[in-house]
């Protein structure tokens, strides 16, 4: 695909991405560093050489502490902060941890306040994306996505920081298939549907702490990323997918269970429209789609 020119998007809202005080980082043990990073997609949004920190080195615990501090502050109110052992067992050892960092010496005051003070380290993480490989070949699970934006007043937030954090992780680690889980009425649903064709794996998930969780699978496609920034429809979505006539009600448990039964009865696969989700308020009814059967010529 042609590389998208970010300079023309939203005027100067993405100027922060070119600031030399901000760098993407990877927090990955040495023997799991990505070979040929960023080689799957023709994208020139990010530098080829991010900061690298080895989480197995004792002296790098300060960076882990900073990541966990930001994550805890972001998720404390919904009681979903990540325990330290989960970070080590489920992210550091088997997975890939990445995000953006700001040089601490020039860290904006509002970010210092949001994080509870200024660290003594050279770099301060301001976003986090964790992705874990699954047993299915080529498939990864997105475990956590966090940015400091959730701790800032709206006027202080950096445009698309969370979205670009996930873009960077998927691009750098050469991820082709990404699964994940979020809640139907969470604002995160609007974001996670913008990375590729969005398949619903579960609509009602009682094994989760929150049964109204949607589990999804995305075939990573940067064309969707372009559409997110340009706010235009996904090319060929209507040609590739058709409405099933079923409308899911995110706030109605019986509606979620009804869609879940359809999934379990192998009536799918089912997909959601990223354009529809982007256009509606969270919790509004959503159309359910299936792949069109393309006629052979």
Describe this entry's structure for a reader:
The chain has 297 residues and is an alpha+beta fold. It has two domains: 1-175, no CATH class; 176-297, no CATH class. Helices cover 26% and strands 25% of the residues. Strands 1, 2, 3, 4, 5, 6, 7, 8, 9 and 11 form a ten-stranded mixed sheet that branches. A two-stranded antiparallel sheet has the order 10-12. It has helices at 61-75, 84-92, 109-114, 161-172, 188-192, 222-230, 237-240, 253-264, 274-279, and strands at 22-27, 51-53, 96-103, 123-125, 127-133, 139-147, 177-183, 196-202, 213-220, 241-248, 270-272, 286-291. It contains nine helices and twelve strands.
The biggest sheet amounts to: 10 strands, mixed
List the helices and strands in order.
Answer: EEHHEHEEEHEHEEHHEHEHE
Q: If you average the pLDDT, what whole number results? A: 91
Helicity range = 25-40%
How many angstroms separate the termini? 27 Å
- Beta strand %: 25-35%
Task: Give me the secondary-structure topology.
Layout: E1 22-27, E2 51-53, H1 61-75, H2 84-92, E3 96-103, H3 109-114, E4 123-125, E5 127-133, E6 139-147, H4 161-172, E7 177-183, H5 188-192, E8 196-202, E9 213-220, H6 222-230, H7 237-240, E10 241-248, H8 253-264, E11 270-272, H9 274-279, E12 286-291
Parallel strand pairs: 1-2, 6-7
Antiparallel strand pairs: 1-3, 3-4, 3-5, 5-6, 7-9, 8-9, 8-11, 10-12
């Amino acid at each position: 695909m042609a590389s998208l020119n970010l300079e023309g998007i939203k005027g100067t809202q993405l100027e922060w991405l070119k600031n030399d005080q901000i760098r993407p980082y990877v927090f990955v043990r040495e023997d799991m560093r990505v070979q040929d990073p960023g080689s799957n997609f023709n994208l020139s949004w990010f530098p080829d050489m991010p900061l690298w920190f080895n989480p197995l080195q004792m002296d790098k615990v300060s960076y882990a502490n900073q990541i966990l501090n930001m994550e805890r502050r972001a998720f404390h109110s919904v009681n979903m902060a990540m325990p330290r052992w989960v970070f080590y067992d489920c992210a550091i050892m088997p997975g890939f941890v990445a995000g953006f960092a700001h040089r601490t010496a020039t860290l904006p005051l509002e970010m210092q306040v949001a994080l509870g003070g200024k660290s003594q380290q050279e770099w301060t993480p301001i976003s986090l994306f964790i992705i874990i490989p699954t047993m299915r070949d080529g498939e990864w699970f997105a475990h956590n996505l966090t940015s400091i934006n959730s701790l800032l007043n709206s006027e202080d937030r950096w445009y698309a920081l969370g979205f670009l954090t996930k873009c960077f992780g998927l691009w750098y680690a050469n991820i082709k298939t990404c699964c994940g889980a979020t809640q139907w009425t969470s604002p995160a649903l609007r974001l996670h549907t913008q990375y590729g064709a969005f398949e619903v794996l579960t609509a009602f998930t009682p094994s989760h702490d929150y049964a109204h969780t949607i589990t999804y699978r995305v075939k990573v496609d940067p064309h969707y990323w372009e559409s997110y920034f340009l706010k235009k429809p996904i090319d060929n979505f209507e040609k590739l997918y058709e409405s099933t006539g079923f409308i899911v009600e995110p706030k109605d448990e019986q509606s979620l269970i009804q869609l879940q039964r359809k999934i379990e009865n192998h009536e799918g696969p089912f997909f959601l429209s990223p354009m529809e989700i982007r256009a509606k308020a969270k919790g509004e009814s959503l159309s359910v789609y299936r792949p069109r059967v393309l006629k052979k010529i």
